[in-house]
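We were asked to recover a plausible sequence for a given structure. The inputs and outputs are reproduced exactly as logged, with field labels preserved.

PROBLEM: sequence recovery
POSITIONS: 564
GIVEN STRUCTURE:
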């Protein structure tokens, strides 16, 4: 399955494979000198068999030399930020305008770059004349649009792939009730892919979405849809994970695992719209965290064979959609407004350069960890952050248990805090933290901290504990997964109940592995038939998704477990 998908589409991929091979040969045959280490992103990416892309806006592309120079020098793949969308290409029915799209394709051709087409069918940036059509006319208009737009570049070797449908899910993982869905039903998705294959048989055809980077309700819905479409013979070749991240909402630590589960379906995967925003103003600590996010995304793609590459959604903070959409946030890209490279550029560069890094300076030791929220099975550790001066940037922390000759790892984190779970009740733990940088250098250990877990059974409810971890967040919602439930008693549980407090204005919009009911701000989660029995010391987990007012950053608290 995997190999048959990866060798499509035929002729164009063979050309690209040859190009990648030449790139590899160049990397192996040229002497490795410091000059190579500072080579542009696209050279390092080619050496790893991946693309590194950027979205481009047509305004600065025609007006600014510096913009053009960086776009041409650093990137091997281009996506039109807006120029290939429906409102740009077919603003009135049957009246096509390819001026912006052609400018992008011409630029890429001149600079030996690939183009990823974005996007044929989307609920946004689609003119009202489309939205107001009846079912038969809308289906015909969709097929004609795909035929004209994808067909225009079908013989152009630069254009290698398309986002055929974009953002077909809502934030809860249900199919979005867009005008497409409301008028045509779910079948518009399969029809769009079939029309795209007919229009450009060689292009790789993708489905693209946001908030699907980690394993959650929405990405699982995407997984199920892709699996089912492919079983029906619908030509879905690739899945795009947009990657609009924010440092205040945490990194999706299961990104690599998630990419791999899609790859195992036989599709190619790619990061399509990466940016990492922050609350303004910028400072060096936020820049360092942002750099870690960029590095982790690139490394996740590098670690998954079927990941084709990473596209950043623009490259300079001078032109980014973020400040227009998220009030008070910005600085999401890898160059600042004056085209200076930021730490996030170095992070992407060094991750792609891999073995060519010359950083041998480890980060400083973390501050002593402090333990809080200690339960029978969990504890939260917080410490003062390390700094890294070697050039590759701080990548994260590992917590170890002091235990003699071999100290086992208890947890990892990309920030200066972690909640340890799965601890044994009534047990003393002596722990320390080490930082690591992007080149893999480890700091000396922090001072140790000692804490003792509670006995369990005596806390509220008992004899079980519950700890909730926010897996991913966005402006107006979040996913809590896992909520880990552990039997800390001396007998098996016969069903368990977890309660927690939802901040005002928040609503649970979906859940799995438990039945949730809400009364006021209190949510009660009850076990299901298959996970209510927990042996002494055993754990299970459930998860849920919630919406919240835009801009609110609160998450639930006060997880309490009780069991008969
Ligand atoms: O072109 C008009 C201009 O004539 C007018 O004067 C101006 C006034 O606001 O608007 C211009 O259009 C803007 C367009 O970008 C081009 O600059 C739209 O208002 C603005 O809404 C549009 O934003 C784009 C957004 O998609 C629309 O949904 C962003 O640039 C673009 O970065 C963003 O990209 C999306 C991806 O396609 C899909 N995934 C999410 C991503 C971020 O939202």
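RECOVERED SEQUENCE:
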């Amino acid at each position: 399955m995997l190999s048959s998908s990866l060798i499509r589409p035929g002729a164009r991929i063979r050309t690209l494979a040859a190009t990648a091979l030449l790139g590899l040969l160049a990397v192996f045959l040229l002497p490795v000198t410091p000059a190579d280490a500072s080579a542009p992103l696209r050279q390092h990416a080619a050496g790893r068999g991946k693309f590194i892309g950027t979205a481009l806006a047509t305004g600065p592309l025609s007006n600014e030399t510096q913009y053009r120079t960086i776009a041409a020098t650093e990137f091997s793949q281009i996506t039109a930020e807006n120029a290939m969308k429906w409102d740009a290409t077919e603003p009135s029915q049957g009246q096509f305008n390819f001026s912006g799209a052609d400018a992008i394709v011409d630029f890429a051709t001149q600079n030996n770059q690939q183009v990823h087409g974005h996007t044929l069918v989307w609920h946004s940036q689609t003119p009202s004349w489309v939205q107001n059509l009846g079912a038969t006319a809308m289906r015909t208009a969709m097929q004609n649009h795909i035929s004209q737009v994808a067909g225009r570049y079908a013989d152009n070797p630069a254009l290698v792939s398309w986002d055929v449908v974009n953002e077909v899910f809502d934030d809860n993982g249900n199919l979005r009730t867009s005008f497409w869905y409301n008028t045509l039903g779910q079948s518009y998705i399969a029809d769009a892919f079939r029309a795209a294959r007919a229009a450009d048989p060689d292009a790789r055809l993708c489905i693209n979405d946001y908030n699907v980077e980690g394993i959650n309700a929405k990405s699982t819905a995407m997984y199920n849809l892709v699996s089912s479409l492919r079983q029906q013979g619908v030509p879905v070749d690739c899945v795009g994970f947009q990657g609009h991240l924010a440092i205040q909402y945490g990194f999706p630590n299961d990104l690599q695992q998630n990419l791999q589960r899609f790859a195992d379906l036989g599709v190619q995967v790619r990061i399509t719209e990466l940016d990492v925003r922050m609350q303004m103003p910028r400072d060096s600590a936020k820049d360092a965290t942002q750099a870690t996010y960029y590095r982790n995304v690139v490394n996740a793609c590098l670690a998954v064979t079927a990941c084709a590459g990473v596209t950043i959604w623009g490259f300079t903070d001078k032109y980014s959609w973020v400040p227009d959409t998220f009030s008070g946030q910005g600085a999401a890209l890898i160059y600042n407004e004056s085209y200076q490279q930021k730490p996030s550029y170095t992070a992407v560069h060094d991750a792609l350069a891999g073995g060519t890094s010359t950083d041998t300076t480890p980060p400083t030791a973390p501050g002593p960890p402090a333990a809080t929220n200690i339960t029978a099975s969990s504890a939260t550790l917080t410490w003062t952050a390390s700094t890294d001066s070697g050039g590759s940037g701080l990548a994260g922390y590992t917590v170890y248990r002091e235990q003699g000759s071999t100290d086992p790892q208890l947890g990892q984190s990309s920030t200066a805090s972690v909640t340890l779970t799965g601890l044994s009740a009534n047990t003393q733990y002596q722990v320390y933290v080490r930082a690591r940088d992007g080149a893999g250098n480890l700091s000396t250990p922090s001072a140790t901290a000692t804490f003792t877990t509670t006995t369990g059974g005596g806390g509220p409810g008992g004899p079980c504990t519950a700890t909730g971890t926010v897996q991913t967040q966005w402006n107006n919602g979040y996913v809590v997964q896992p909520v880990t439930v552990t039997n800390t008693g001396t007998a098996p549980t016969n069903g368990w109940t977890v309660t927690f407090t939802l901040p005002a204005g928040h609503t649970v919009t979906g859940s799995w592995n438990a039945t949730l009911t809400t009364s006021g701000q209190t949510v009660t989660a009850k076990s299901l038939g298959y996970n209510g029995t927990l042996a002494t010391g055993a754990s299970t987990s459930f998860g849920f998704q919630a919406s919240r007012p835009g801009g609110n950053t609160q998450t639930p608290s006060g997880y309490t477990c009780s069991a008969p």
